């Protein structure tokens, strides 16, 4: 399992809770109704990337912090 750096763009987050639904041990809603990362290692990598993919406004970025590879959104070539 890679070490992931997960960032939420809170300005973009619309509080749909999709990410929480997919990976409740990783994401939780904060007091402002925006998603927060509570444990970047709380689910398998594929689940976390799946949660980022589910986000309707693409507010979640997932980077493999060991290699620096951006896993989601897919880097543009
Ligand atoms: S899925 Fe996206 S918009 Fe919905 S709560 Fe998570 S980060 Fe926010």
Walk me through this protein's architecture:
It is a single chain. Helix content is 19%, strand content 25%. The chain has 77 residues and is of the alpha+beta class. The protein has a single domain (4-72), classed as Alpha-Beta Plaits (2-Layer Sandwich), CATH 3.30.70.20. The longest helix is centred in the middle third of the chain and has 10 residues, at 45-54. The protein is globular, with a radius of gyration of 11 Å. The model has no long low-confidence stretch (mean pLDDT 95). Bound molecules: iron/sulfur cluster (SF4). Residues 8, 13-19, 35, 55-57, 59-60 line the site of iron/sulfur cluster (SF4).
SSE run: EHEEHEE
Structural class assignment: alpha+beta
Bound molecules: iron/sulfur cluster
Beta-strand content bin: 15-25%
Q: What number is the mean pLDDT?
A: 95
- Shape call: globular
CATH architecture: 2-Layer Sandwich
Overall tally of structural domains: 1
Looking at the structure, the CATH topology is Alpha-Beta Plaits
Count, helices: 2
Sheet having the most strands: 3 strands, antiparallel
Spans where pLDDT lies below 50 across 5 or more residues: none
Spatial ordering of strands, largest sheet: 1-4-5
Strand element count:
5
* Rg of Cα set: 11 Å
Question: What are the salient characteristics of this protein?
Answer:
single chain, 77 residues, Alpha-Beta Plaits, 3-stranded antiparallel beta sheet, two-stranded antiparallel ribbon, globular, binds iron/sulfur cluster
């Amino acid at each position: 399992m890679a070490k992931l750096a997960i960032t939420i763009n809170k300005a973009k987050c619309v509080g749909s809770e999709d990410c929480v639904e997919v990976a409740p041990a990783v994401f939780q809603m904060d007091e402002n109704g925006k998603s927060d990362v509570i444990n970047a290692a709380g689910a398998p990598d594929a689940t976390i990337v799946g949660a980022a993919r589910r986000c309707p406004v693409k507010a979640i970025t997932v980077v493999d912090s060991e290699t620096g590879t951006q896993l989601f959104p897919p880097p543009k070539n």
